[in-house]
């Protein structure tokens, strides 16, 4: 991400301006998702495993520079040493996010 920050910021700005990720693409990114409620642009980069033991990787642009729980938006993130985390109380679902740089 850091090596391509200018390009990714340009794509994220364009998606936010248009209000849609349709037609947006970046090499190495599987899918770009626009979350209109938070104006966050999510870049999905990969996954591994078979359900229910799957994990996914990616990153997102948060104009408000606030960590978000994009997979479980109704759940609160807890601060950790490296970022923020949500862990399902009675299950195996987890979500982790950490700050790469401002807005990312």
Question: In words, what does this structure look like?
Answer:
This protein is an alpha+beta fold. It is built from one helix and six strands, in the order αββββββ. It has one helix spanning 5-18, and strands spanning 31-35, 40-48, 55-61, 78-79, 84-87, 94-97. The strands form two sheets. It has a three-stranded antiparallel β-sheet. Strands 4-5-6 form a three-stranded antiparallel β-sheet, with no helix packed on it. The longest helix has 14 residues, at 5-18. The radius of gyration is 14 Å and the shape is globular. It starts with a helix and ends in a 7-residue tail after the last strand. 13% of the residues are buried. The mean pLDDT is 90.
List segments where confidence is low: pLDDT < 50 over at least 5 consecutive residues. none
**Sheet/helix structural class:** alpha+beta
Q: What value does the Rg take, in angstroms?
A: 14 Å
Shape call: globular
Topology, number of strands: 6
Give the SSE string. Answer: HEEEEEE
In spatial order, strands of the major sheet run 1-2-3
Q: What does the largest sheet look like? A: 3 strands, antiparallel
DSSP strand content: 25-35%
Helix content: 10-25%
Helices, by number, come to: 1
- Report how far the terminal alpha carbons are from each other: 9 Å
Global mean pLDDT: 90
What structural keywords apply?
104 residues, alpha+beta, 3-stranded antiparallel sheet, 1 helix, 13% helix, 30% strand
């Amino acid at each position: 991400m850091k090596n391509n920050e200018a390009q990714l910021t340009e794509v994220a700005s364009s998606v936010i301006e248009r209000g849609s990720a349709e037609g947006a693409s970046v090499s190495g990114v599987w899918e770009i998702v626009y979350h209109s409620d938070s104006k966050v642009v999510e870049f999905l980069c990969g996954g591994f495993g078979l359900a229910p033991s799957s994990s996914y990787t990616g990153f997102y642009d948060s104009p408000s520079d606030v960590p978000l729980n994009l997979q479980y938006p109704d759940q609160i993130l807890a601060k950790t040493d490296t970022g923020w985390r949500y862990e399902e109380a009675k299950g195996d679902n987890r979500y982790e996010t950490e700050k790469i740089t401002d807005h990312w």
